[in-house]
Specification:
There is one protein chain. A hairpin with a 6-residue loop joins β2 and β3. This protein has a five-stranded mixed beta sheet with strand order 1-2-3-4-5. It is an alpha+beta fold and 111 residues long. The protein is built from three helices and five strands, in the order αβββααββ.
């Protein structure tokens, strides 16, 4: 349900992106993928990581979890799906959250 909530929150992106969730790509399934409708905007891949810890996570712990999401995007080759559509300008985003606390990290993928 979390992936669907994040996907719905991207409603404003619909004029310039096709938004899909749970996309089979590479050797796994990424949480959210945004395919640009124009060549002048980047493709975006978002991976979500939810902590099941009982105690509140520190900012450093949330950042580590978000960076794990970026590694998952790279290691599972989720980027391949955008490359196959000739999308070379790509940003990846890892979002970690624990209850109401969240932290996001972004990275530009070089062609």
């Amino acid at each position: 349900a979390t992936t669907e909530i994040y996907t719905l929150s991207l409603h404003d992106a619909l004029p310039i992106y096709v938004v899909e969730n749970e996309v089979n790509s590479g050797t796994g399934r990424c949480d959210i993928m945004l395919y640009p409708k124009r060549r002048d905007i980047p493709g975006i891949i978002i991976e979500l990581k939810k902590s099941r810890a009982r105690k509140k996570l520190t900012k450093l712990q949330l950042e580590k979890l978000a960076k794990e999401a970026l590694l998952q995007i790279k290691n599972q080759d989720y980027i391949e799906k955008l490359r196959l559509k000739n999308i070379d300008d790509i940003f990846i985003c890892g979002i970690a959250f624990w209850e109401k606390n969240s932290l996001s990290v972004f990275e530009k993928i070089e062609s």
